[in-house]
Amino acid sequence: MKPLNLSPSFEPPARRPAPLRFYGTFGPSCRDEKTFCTLLEAGMTGMRLNLSHGDLDRCADWLAAFRAAQTCCGVTADLMIDLHGPELRIGTLPKPLALSRGGRVRLAAAPAPDAIPVPAAVLDALTPDQPLLLDDGQIELRAVTCIADSVCCRVIRGGRLESRKSLALPGISLDLPLLTESDRHNLTLARTCGVTQVMMPFVQSGGDIRKLREILAESRLEELTIFAKIENRVGLDHLDGIIRETDWLVIARGDLGSALPLWRLPAVQKAVAARCRAQNCPFMVVTQMLDSMRRHPVPTRAEVCDVYNAVCDGAAALMLTGETAAGNYPAEAMRYLVRTATAEVVTL
Ligand SMILES: Nc1ncnc2c1ncn2[C@@H]1O[C@H](COP(=O)(O)OP(=O)(O)O)[C@@H](O)[C@H]1O
Ligand SMILES: C=C(OP(=O)(O)O)C(=O)O
Q1: I want to staple 227 with a disulfide (CB 3.0 to 4.6 A). Which of 71, 127, 199, 304 is the partner?
Q2: Segment 80-99, tens digit of pLDDT
Q3: What's the 202 CA to ligand 1 centre distance in angstroms?
Q4: Which positions fall inside the Pyruvate kinase barrel domain (predicted)?
Q5: Range 21-86+177-342 classified under CATH 2.60.40.1640
């Protein structure tokens, strides 16, 4: 594997940008006024809508509840849209699929019973033995036979696969457009929906951010703050150019963790943080910060340490994803996130 062109630095942050920002993610567990009020009272400063799971117009009720909660609590919060962009995901399944180790499963471009729907570009790129990582690497498949419109895979690591989960093809880089048709449609709705910030997935170069700025300007959305997600090796290789162009950088550990051997992720996170600090670029750390709180009301010791370490490394924002979107304890998770990140330094 080519060495990453990043030198780690363990210098303490020059300054802690204040105040810290905290985000939750909309989803089935986080869509009513009461929940939003609890999150805002806990210190949340903004919500992110992941457009890979639904368009802005389909979330009108959620957005109205979020606005009502801000009025009720007397605060103003950010509304961030996370574009679909060139991210690879599986399509919609009629029902979740149970995949067992050693079993076989078919990938197809068109919906078919018991097949996983994937973009046609994925089928074209697959060759026998190519690994596929699904749902941030929870599930692993290996291509066995590849024919034009269908690929048969062996299940290496099984699990329960739900609709629209992430898909990574280690070692393969597909040339996909910066924005999808649905992204362009959502941008036309952004102003009326009160969007204040936009997250761009799989940023590959400073040029991607310049292009996004042009598109935002054409849509009269130039005031939106841009958050560039670093999610793969190409993004890491072009980090300086991306930092120069973006307003914020996002260390998006879900997809980034599938693009590298997972044990290298902590060192890469530290190195990206150091580069952001050196160039005075505010950055956000995201994904699985309090993942066990999807199922439990109290986080693990390792999770609270991860949150605090991210702040010590200079993160100016932290975001919860599945913990608020689809977890059982969204309010408790936000409370732990804010309290841990803002806990006083201890001198012994
Ligand atoms: N807008 C939405 N509509 C329905 N479900 C959603 C939405 N956003 C998120 N979710 C659910 O919450 C989970 C976690 O959210 P997120 O981390 O944004 O997605 P993912 O892990 O798929 O990138 C998603 O996998 C999905 O099940
Ligand atoms: C937040 C992330 O992006 P997504 O939820 O789109 O996978 C991530 O990859 O860490």
Answers
A1: 199
A2: 999 999 999 999 999 999 99
A3: 17
A4: 24-333
A5: no
- Specify the pTM: 0.93
Q: Which atom of ligand 1 is nearest to the CA of 48?
A: 18
Both tokens assigned to 187: 């941008």
ipTM of the complex: 0.98
Query: Minimum-distance ligand to the CA of 324?
Result: 1
Pocket test of ligand 2: the residue of 50, 133, 231 to mutate, having most ligand atoms within 8 Å of its CB, is: 231
- Mutation test residue for ligand 1: of 47, 53, 83, the one with most atoms within 8 Å of CB: 53
Cα gap 49→55, rounded to integer Å = 9
Q: Decide if domain 97-168 falls under CATH 2.40.10.220.
A: no
Q: Where in the chain are the domains? A: 21-86+177-342, 97-168
Closest CA to 254 of 116, 88, 106: 88
Per-residue pLDDT at 1 exceeds 60? no
